[in-house]
């Protein structure tokens, strides 16, 4: 059965930051530091999904999706990241899973969507190899509680973005600007993924995936300099995270650094344990040219000539087809079934005088990208799911509440939910897809 779903993440929607024994995560710390997020927004309350989840599950049931990708907050389950378990944290996800199943929606939890327990950051975060083992400990605890009912698990969300934005550039938590010295964060996340796969399987997990965000890389020209720069970028953004998992080896890293002192014997065997699928998050392609004089081995030139989202990201639906068919070409038989675990766009979304939100731009975006998935399938890619980012307008990281990605509008003063026109459109489209 093809999975049609929506996606969210714990810190972006739950709020209830101090409820029921939840520990602090790096995002609590980061958002409470001055100047880190736009207008100082935090996820303290967010969509208050922690208390309003039954309403959100009802919205999904009414929408007609058959799957829901959410993330589990590590510090709700282990307030200090390791050691003491907080039963009330586990109870919350237990109730959510049961509520989803009762509504006919498959729960697809992601174990790590960037909210590392602060106590683990205090000992170096993902720069410290020990964190990989703590992640597996956490995975085992969650799976022992939920694996009897959860059909599909995702270990990590977008390890590239967590490394690059969180440790490379410092625009996300933990706010470190190590540039290419952040490379160990890639390996330790990947090792944590592999160890978590073992822990999940041991606890009886059925299907296990990882979600990588991938981008088709467009060289600015056919010149040798542009092609080499595009290759370096493709290595950093895509292959650094896909190759070890699917092929059991790192790509040639010399353009971006080295992991020789970080990778130990046996690590790649752990990292490349077979998966039941690969989660792909797609937003847009990236156009890359030769290095400028800023020390980076490439220049991100931006893409012009396409419509843009409220974020300014180019809207290129065919990039999704290009990405999926490109993965199949690159990895061949090593590519497991693919699930598009995030795709969506931010729009201004101002309610009209009658309170409705007529987000035609989002409808066009989703329509184009769903067609791109259909085309990729027609071209032979085994795609088995598509999840819209996002169910709700939510806390968009460094942008706070300024970027709205939801099918459902959230008024952040009243927390009232209002389905947008795109929600009604998707409900209709899902009915057609079910009864062709
Ligand atoms: C995802 O990350 C996250 O998983 C999710 O939590 C988040 O809310 C959602 O996307 C929306 O942001 O400057 O034009 O080249 C997405 C990662 C990184 C994708 C930045 C787009 C830059 C576009 N994004 N990237 S551009």
From TrEMBL:
Catalyses which reaction? Hydrolysis of terminal, non-reducing beta-D-glucosyl residues with release of beta-D-glucose
| InterPro entries (UniProt xref) | GH_1_N_CS, Glyco_hydro_1, Glyco_hydro_1_beta-glucosidase
User: Signal peptide: which range, if any?
Assistant: none
Q: Which UniProt keywords apply?
A: Carbohydrate metabolism, Cellulose degradation, Glycosidase, Hydrolase, Polysaccharide degradation
State the Gene Ontology terms under molecular function.
beta-glucosidase activity
EC numbers, comma separated: 3.2.1.21
The UniProt family comment states: Belongs to the glycosyl hydrolase 1 family.
| NCBIfam families the UniProt entry points to | BGL
- Write down what this protein is called: Beta-glucosidase
The major lineage groups are: Bacteria, Bacillati, Actinomycetota, Actinomycetes, Streptosporangiales
């Amino acid at each position: 059965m093809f999975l049609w779903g929506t996606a969210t993440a714990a810190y972006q929607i739950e709020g209830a930051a101090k409820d029921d024994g939840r520990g602090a995560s790096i995002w609590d710390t980061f958002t409470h530091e001055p100047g880190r997020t736009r207008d100082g927004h935090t996820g303290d309350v967010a969509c208050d999904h922690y208390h309003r989840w039954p309403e959100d599950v009802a919205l999904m049931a009414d929408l007609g999706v058959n799957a829901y990708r959410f993330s589990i907050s590590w510090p709700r389950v282990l307030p200090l990241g390791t050691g003491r378990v907080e039963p009330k944290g586990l109870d919350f996800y237990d109730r959510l899973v049961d509520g989803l199943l009762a509504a006919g929606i498959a729960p697809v939890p992601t174990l790590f969507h960037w909210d590392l327990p602060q106590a683990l950051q205090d000992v170096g975060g993902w720069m410290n190899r020990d964190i990989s083992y703590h992640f597996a400990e956490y995975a085992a605890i969650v799976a022992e509680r939920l694996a009897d009912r959860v059909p599909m698990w995702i270990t990590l969300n977008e390890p590239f973005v967590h490394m690059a934005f969180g440790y490379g550039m410092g625009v996300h938590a933990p706010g470190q600007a190590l540039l290419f010295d952040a490379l160990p964060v890639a390996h330790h996340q990947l090792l944590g993924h592999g160890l978590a796969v073992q822990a999940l399987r041991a606890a009886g997990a059925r299907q296990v995936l990882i979600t990588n965000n991938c981008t088709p890389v467009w060289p600015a020209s056919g010149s040798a300099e542009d092609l080499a720069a595009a290759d370096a970028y493709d290595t950093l953004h895509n292959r650094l995270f896909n190759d070890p998992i699917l092929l059991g080896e790192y790509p040639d890293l010399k353009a971006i650094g080295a992991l020789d002192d970080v990778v130990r014997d046996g690590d790649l065997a752990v990292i490349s344990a077979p998966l039941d699928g690969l989660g792909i998050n797609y937003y847009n392609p990236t156009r890359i040219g030769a290095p400028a004089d800023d020390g980076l081995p490439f220049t991100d030139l931006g893409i012009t000539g396409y419509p843009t989202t409220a974020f300014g990201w180019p809207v290129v639906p065919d990039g999704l087809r290009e990405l999926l068919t490109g993965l199949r070409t690159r990895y061949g038989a090593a590519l497991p079934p693919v699930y598009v675990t995030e795709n969506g766009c931010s729009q201004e979304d101002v309610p009209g005088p009658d309170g409705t939100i007529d987000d035609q731009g989002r409808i066009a975006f989703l329509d184009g990208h769903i067609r791109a998935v259909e085309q990729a399938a027609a071209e032979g890619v085994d795609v088995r799911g598509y999840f819209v980012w996002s169910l709700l307008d939510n806390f968009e990281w460094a942008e706070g509440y300024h970027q709205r990605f939801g099918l459902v509008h959230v008024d952040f003063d009243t927390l009232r939910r209002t389905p947008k026109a795109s929600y009604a459109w998707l409900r209709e489209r899902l009915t057609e897809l079910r009864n062709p």
